[in-house]
């Protein structure tokens, strides 16, 4: 049974407020990934403490300081968007399901993956630094950097 929406609403909102598209259905995940030229950052959100204490704040820091950014950012919620999460994880070829996790897809192909073991127990600043490296490696210049 999925988590009740009232329980996870605030956790969803943290990423939605950063401009992430909430992809709650398999079709929405496929649409976002397959119809985006460039890099898609896919976040598998979670109720766990490492998502709350490190991952979501780290993502916010990285996006705030990015000179390069993904062309699209999407999120699914593990334990709530069950079918959508399964489809998102199908793109993470070679990796076991974990949450939270962050995958970078370039033209539909996985180019970098952060599994729970790469995120758990790390402070937001360390996660932000790792994400900024991924942005630099796989993403074009952000609109803010071009102005």
CATH class: Alpha Beta
The tally of domains stands at 1
Overall body shape: globular
- Please identify which CATH superfamily we are dealing with: Glutaredoxin
What is the total tally of β strands?
7
State the low-pLDDT regions, or none: 143-147
**How far is the N terminus from the C terminus?**
46 Å
Give, in order, the helices and strands. HEHEHEEHEEHHEH
How would a textbook summarize the main sheet?
5 strands, mixed
Structural class: alpha/beta
Beta-strand content: 15-25%
Task: Describe this protein's structure.
The chain is α/β, with parallel strands linked by helices. It has a single domain (5-134), classed as Glutaredoxin, CATH 3.40.30. Helices cover 47% and strands 21% of the residues. The chain is built from seven helices and seven strands. The protein has helices spanning 5-16, 26-34, 49-64, 82-90, 116-119, 124-138, 143-146, and strands at 21-22, 39-45, 68-69, 72-77, 101-106, 109-114, 140-141. The strands form two sheets. Strands 1-4-2-5-6 form a five-stranded mixed β-sheet, with helices on both faces. A two-stranded antiparallel sheet has the order 3-7. Strand 5 (101-106) and strand 6 (109-114) form a beta hairpin. Helix 2 runs parallel beside helix 4 (82-90) and helix 3 packs across helix 6 (124-138). It is globular. It starts with a helix and ends with a helix. The model is unreliable at 143-147 (pLDDT under 50).
